[in-house]
From TrEMBL:
Keyword annotations from UniProtKB, A to Z: Cell inner membrane, Cell membrane, Membrane, Transmembrane, Transmembrane helix, Transport
Keyword Disulfide bond annotated: no
InterPro entries per the UniProt record, alphabetical: AcrB_DN_DC_subdom, Acrflvin-R, MdtF-like
GO CC term (a single one): plasma membrane
Molecular functions (GO terms): efflux transmembrane transporter activity; xenobiotic transmembrane transporter activity
Database matches in PANTHER family: MULTIDRUG EXPORT PROTEIN ACRF (PTHR32063:SF72), PTHR32063
Originating species: Enterobacter cancerogenus
UniProt record, GO biological process: response to toxic substance
Subcellular location: Cell inner membrane
Membrane-crossing residue ranges in chain numbering: 253-272, 279-303, 309-329, 350-371, 383-410, 454-471
Record protein name field: Efflux pump membrane transporter
Amino acid sequence: MTITLTFQSGTDPDIAQVQVQNKLQLAMPLLPQEVQQQGIGVEKSSSSFLLVAGFVSDNKSLSQDDISDYVASNVKDAISRTSGVGDVQLFGAQYAMRIWLDSNAMNKYQLTPLDVINQLKTQNNQIAAGQLGGTPSIPGQQLNASIIAQTRLKSPEEFGRVTLKVNPDGSMVHLKDVARIELGGENYNMVTKINGQAATGLGIKLATGANALDTAAAIKSKLAQLQPFFPQGLRVVYPYDTTPFVKISIHEVVKTLFEAIILVFLVMYLFLQNLRATLIPTIAVPVVLLGTFAILAAFGFSINTLTMFGMVLAIGLLVDDAIVVVENVERVMVEDKLPPKEATQKSMEQIQGALVGIAMVLSAVFIPMAFFGGSTGAIYRQFSLTIVSAMALSVLVALILTPALCATLLKPVSGDHHEKKGGFFGWFNALFDRSVDHYSNSVSGILRKTGRYLLVYLIIVGGMAVLFLRLPTSFLPEEDQGVFMTMVQLPAGATQMRTQKVLDQVQDYYLTKEKANVESVFTVNGFSFSGQGQNSGIAFVSLKPWEERPGKENGVGAIVSRATKAFSQIKDGLVFPFKPTRYY
């Protein structure tokens, strides 16, 4: 049995874990003796799976029980101890000695199940047999050794010889007389398959505050270390893994970051048309980004999709301050015919207040996001602080580094240096001047008919409000993570056989109708996020790489939509696909 506690955002998970353990210690005396003997564990983990490690055998001699017992005995604990792992769910069971009591025989010998349990506890117990040559020893004793007695029962035959009762005539009733004894699974609550082949699996959840990529890499490294010791034919697969999407997301954002830097340089050069002037704002970019990384490290943040998106957005904002400085220095040099150093001094006297004001306005927009509560605050806090940090540093660079670069790198220019250019820049300048003239004429026309255009503006504002109210809302945008899950829920009282039939239908649909998109289907009969039981099941669906699924119709949203429509025809239970939680 599992009880899940959800705390408010910002709660220290370590303190919460200690407090829960303290409360459990107070309640422990009130619990049944069996529960106290088994113990109660408190673990901090996320609510969704980071990945599922599946174990399947190419050796037909290994049954699902064999695989499950090996994984439970030799793999699960090793994965549980891996840094960053919060909880490990075994989809299977260990071996156990199964004792099937015969009610007729029990009645014949006047025995109850409690009698059997008591005798098993008494006769299947580890006994300290003492020592050889223990103190006080006899004179001349030369050897001291502990005596280990093999009193634990190991085989069905040994369990069968357990004495349950001695009759008045001296005859004995053994366990084998009233029960069928065999080595089997500890329970048969779960049936797992990978693409229809018998298997078992470990559902691994991330510890609170742990890094998803580092944890997944550590898990795969540990399993690779254990692989040589697996039984012949046993191999590990990953039918559900959320980390490839995180990796490719960060890769795409990093690529976008470099593209943004290149585009910013090209646009600045297009308008400034001076390589020296263009280099000054470009130099400010890596300086500001380096400082932003340092601030993120000081706050304990990581490089993730949110912080990287914040930096991409900040690229366009942070060069604005440097461009303002460079443009104004050039203007002062042209209008006042001053050398670069004196022009820079005069320029900074004019615009330093405006630069600080710009930073304060933008900070006033983004800083409140850092204080949002709940899940929204947890998600966007890093995004907000990334932008604010970059903006604050860009102002410092514009006030300190950029003026020094202007005084050092810029050269005096004439007022008509743009008009003298030929070729592409001459054509661009002429086109831009015409655009400015058209813009000026348009603004003049609007100012002459303010009433009419004010009405147009009000219509635009009204249209914006209508669209804002009509557009659908969601907590986070939907994205193709390459994996999703399908829950199966049958009516209460449904048997495992009925649930398996529905799971087989789900599996067959994905492996036939969506064959071009689906890589593997890992089904678990007896487990779901809504509870465990014979009427519950879940399917973990792993899709093929994104490059093999081009087009929107092959995205996870379209696949889930088609599957939902197809599964609505299943009358035996409720089947609904859904996309997993995203790790940022």
